[in-house]
Amino acid sequence: MEKSPQTGTTKCEVFYREFSVPPKPLAVPGAIDIDDLVTELEGQSQENAKAIAKGRKWVAETFYADRPTIAQLRLKKGWSQAELARRAETSQPYIARLEQGNVDPQMSTAQKIAKVLGVPIEIFAQALSMEDEV
Question: How much is the pTM?
Answer without folding.
Answer: 0.71
